[in-house]
Amino acid sequence: VKAIYVRSGGGESALAESEEQVVKNIGASASSINYGNIIVDSGTTDTYLPGTLYESFSGAWKEMSGGRSYSNSPMELSHDELLGLPTVLFQLEAHTDSMDHRILEVSN
């Protein structure tokens, strides 16, 4: 993970839906993001970041959500409130080492 951003105005895509949406880098270096335990799994609802990022992430979240503090506790939201929560964007870096050639073979 190269960088983490929080975008205002919610949405269901990585693409911004309007020009009013603001994107804020949480300001953490790639080494601090990738230090220790980090899990970004699009197949589950869980994402784990190093505890050292809590302050910068929660600050960006609060700013992009219009003052709503970040919480890991369950909460009740309407559909519109849910879609209005900030979008978290992860910038990934491409793998530069060559892959195992056997993975790339296609059999007919």
| Low-pLDDT windows of residues | none
N to C succession of SSEs: EEHEEHHEH
Profile the largest sheet: 3 strands, antiparallel
- Structural classification: alpha+beta
Question: How large is the count of helical segments?
Answer: 4
Helix-strand blueprint:
Elements (H helix, E strand, L loop, with lengths): L2 E5 L15 E3 L4 H4 L5 E2 L6 E2 L5 H11 L14 H6 L2 E5 L9 H4 L4
Antiparallel strand pairs: 1-2, 1-5, 3-4
Explain the overall architecture.
One of its GO terms (molecular function) is aspartic-type endopeptidase activity. This is Peptidase A1 domain-containing protein. InterPro entries: Aspartic_peptidase_AS (IPR001969), Peptidase_aspartic_dom_sf (IPR021109). Strand 3 and strand 4 form a beta hairpin. The termini are far apart. The chain has one domain. The chain is built from four helices and five strands. It is about 25% helix and about 15% strand. The model has no long low-confidence stretch (mean pLDDT about 85). The radius of gyration is 17 Å and the shape is globular. With about 110 residues, the protein is of the alpha+beta class. The protein has helices at about 30-35, 55-65, 80-85, 100-105; strands at about 5, 25, 40, 45-50, 85-90. The strands form two sheets. Strands 2-1-5 form a three-stranded antiparallel β-sheet, covered by helices on one side. Strands 3-4 form a two-stranded antiparallel ribbon. About 10% of the residues are buried.
Describe the structure concisely for a colleague.
With 108 residues, the protein is of the alpha+beta class. It has helices spanning 30-33, 54-64, 79-84, 101-104, and strands at residues 3-7, 23-25, 39-40, 47-48, 87-91.
